[in-house]
Specification:
Elements (H helix, E strand, L loop, with lengths): L7 E6 L20 H14 L4 E9 L14 E5 L2 E6 L16 H13 L7 E5 H15 L3 E4 L4 H10 L4 H8 L1 H14 L2 E4 L2 H6 L12 E3 L22 H4 L10 E5 L8 H9 L2 H6 L1 E5 L11 H16 L6 E2 L9 H10 L3 E4 L8 H8 L4 E4 L4 H8 L2 E4 L4 H12 L2 H18 L2 H12 L24 E5 L1 H5 L3 H13 L4 E6 L4 H10 L7 E4 L4 E4 L4 E2 L1 H7 L5 H9 L4 E3 L10 E5 L7 H10 L4 E6 L3 E6 L4 H11 L7 E5 L5 H4 L4 E6 L15 E7 H11 L11
Parallel strand pairs: 1-2, 1-5, 2-4, 5-6, 6-7, 7-8, 9-10, 9-12, 10-11, 12-13, 13-14, 15-16, 15-24, 16-17, 24-25, 25-26
Antiparallel strand pairs: 3-4, 17-18, 18-19, 20-21, 21-23, 22-23
Helix pairs in contact: 1-17, 2-3, 3-6, 5-6, 9-11, 9-15, 19-26
Protein name: sucrose-phosphate synthase
InterPro entries: Glyco_trans_1, Glyco_trans_4-like_N, HAD-like_sf, HAD-SF_hydro_IIB, HAD_sf, SPP-like_dom, SPS, Sucrose_P_synth_Pase-like_dom
Catalytic activity: beta-D-fructose 6-phosphate + UDP-alpha-D-glucose = sucrose 6(F)-phosphate + UDP + H(+)
Length: 715
Amino acid sequence: MTGKTDAVYIVLISIHGLIRGHDLELGRDADTGGQTKYVVDLAKALGQQDTVERVDLITRQINDDQVSRDYAQPSEALNGNARIIRIPAGPEGYIPKEELWDCLDIFTDNLLQWLSRQPRMPDVLHGHYADAGYVGMRLSHLTGIPLVFTGHSLGRDKRTQLLAMGLHSDILEQRYHISRRINAEEDVLATADLVITSTRNEIAEQYELYDYYHPERMVVIPPGTDLAQFHPADGDVHEVGFIQALRPFLTEPGKPIVLALSRPDERKNIVSLVKAYGETPELQALANLVIIAGNRDDIREMNEGAQAVLTEILLLADCYDLYGKLALPKHHTQDDVPDIYRLAAASKGVFVNPALTEPFGLTLLEAAACGAPLVATENGGPVDIIGNCHNGLLVDPLDTQAIADALLSILNDPCQWQTFSEHGLRNVRRYYSWRAHARRYLDKLQPLLKPQQPVVKSTPVRNALRYRSRAIFTDIDQSLLGNAEGLRQFVDTLRSQRKNVFFGIATGRRLDSALAILKKNGVPTPDVLITSLGTEIYYAPHIKTDTAWARHIDYHWNPKAIRRIMADIPGMSLQPASEQSRFKISYHYDSNLAPGVDDINTLLRQEDQAVNANQAFGQFFDIVPARASKGLALRYFARQWNIPLERILVAGGSGADEDMMHGNTLAVVVANRHREELSQLYEAERIYFAQQPHALGIVEAIGHYNFFNDDMGAV
């Protein structure tokens, strides 16, 4: 096996939820569940390996009086070589992951800035879930660092399950931003060098639904469980403190326990378990039902989803008269969890996971390690867990009768119960240890790792540029030109500040076309030209090309294959040769004949072409390499010349400019007839919508941001 032999530096990215190294608040809400524990345990396990120099688990910094101050600390040690790093992005407070999408470009910019201050760049980036996958993808495009992805759960499968429950597609978009998430997952899968899954079922049932499904890039590495914490009772289990929390609920507390432990989320499908229990008198006679569904003080103060689930459970308890048989305690700590499993096992009970789909099922391992047999959903990770451990039964989570029958078959057969319990104890230890996981993980990374090389720097082109501390970048056609008086004011402003500011152009035009139209309109030659939609970078005064950028974006670029694929699509015709370049293929788009843009992107994905494809003004369609865009090229420039993004003003007027306006740049959308293409940016941070058109709008933004003062900032 070939690869890097020195100690490895790994960056794990997991953005949402509440992440700390102790007392994890699992089940607090939909964002603080199994993934939180997984990434913390993974970081700790990797940090204990001799071949690992350093592990940084990157998450979002949270300053919020409603949560612990732990989540505001910039760093937290996990063990000798592993730590948590918290990066600010978006609002200071704790927000749901669905509200994080507009903050991810800021998170990316802040994280890249932090990484640039470290002694060296990481050897690998590993994004967890779609949001962190997006951040990892952007960083990989900018730096060339290999990307590893773990989805944990995927949007296409989630959408199918929620639609099956009767949720309308409009609600899915509003509540979960599901299309945005799925598109991000497609792009991440196109970029990822390795995809780590927990089970084979996860690959077959979730990843195969994606256009960028590459089985050769996927590997199954089951996570581990902490066997020092999760084990059978070693004393009188009835002396543990948590039993006192159950006794007020139960008339006959000595019965076997049917246990469910998850957050109160509709996808966890606890309601179906309560229905199965309530509809089966024989099951009620045999066992008590204990549901540990997060922590609460007042259901009315919980989020809408948790309220709905818990309210439905209470209504069903009343409907089926489950008083004295159903326990729904309000509070538990993470330290209580092993004892809760041990109570179920000692009572000769069963642990149930009835989730609509379960990406892995860490609670199943924990329960099995404590000796409890399992009944679990047939959708997702439990298929592999029970397949390996032979310690329970799989059921259709929407079939309440099947759930009841599976529970009865175990509870009514002491020999079967004992066999399942013993198999679970033995096989969890055999198949699911963190040490084995970390070793296999590092083994799979080896082919991706290359010796560290210094970041390529462009040759200085003019010493005077070194002293410029900020930059203005603008598109030509929809931003700079179109108002003669505005252009005159803008040029005068530039000339008065030439010693302090870079002037840059970011355009879809080729270099020759850009220079010609700028000269025709009396615009001074820019210091930097980003042309052909971010695929080429040139520096004045000699218009020197940045060859390092060209080498960087050439990664996996196959223009011949792209032209062959596009030739068969109706309504698409190549633009003249004057509009083509080495890294840009441009078409005329006839909306009356051509498929939708999403359909064309799907076709390109299915043909394994990882590209950036964009429609502009309803009639043009451009394809460039995945690592190229106006925004990526601008950030490359900023790193090369050490210009903070917060000191770069970018001006745009159409959808083609959106990529460079997200994140930490100061952005202005000038007023023009194509401005509606950027209307979705109205709520974004650091984006100003000018009242004036074209260059007048740029001048307006310079004043709005107080751009040439050191204490500049949005007003």
